[in-house]
Amino acid sequence: METNRPFLVRHEFLLRRLHSLSGLVPVGAYMVIHLLANASIWNGPATYQSAVHQIHSLGRALIVVEWVFIFLPILFHGLYGLVIIRESQPNSGAYPLVGNIRYTLQRATGMIALLFIVWHVFHMHGWFHGEAWRELIDPWGAQFAPYNAASTAAEAVQQSTLVTLLYAVGITACVFHLANGVWTIGITWGVWTTPGAQRRANYVAGAIGLGVLAVGLAAWAGFAFGVRTSDPEAMDAIRAIERRLLQEKIDSGLITEEQASEKSAHFGAPTDR
Amino acid sequence: MAHQSGHGHGHASVATGHRKLADWIDVRVLRQDGPGQASYWERHRIPYEPEMNVISVLQRMAAQAKTVDGRAVAPVAWECNCLEEVCGACTMVINGRVRQSCSALVDRLLRENPGEIELQPMGKFPVVRDLVVDRGRLFRALERMKAWIPVDGYFDMGQGLRQSQSAQEEMYPLSECMSCGCCLEACPQYTKIELARAEGETDEAWQARVREAYDLGFAGAHAISQVMLFNAHPTGRNNASERLDALTDPGGIQDCGNAQNCVAVCPKRIPLTTSIGRAGRAATLHSFRSFFDR
Question: Which of A166, B21, B131, B189 sits a CA distance of 20 to 30 A from A132?
Answer without folding.
Answer: A166
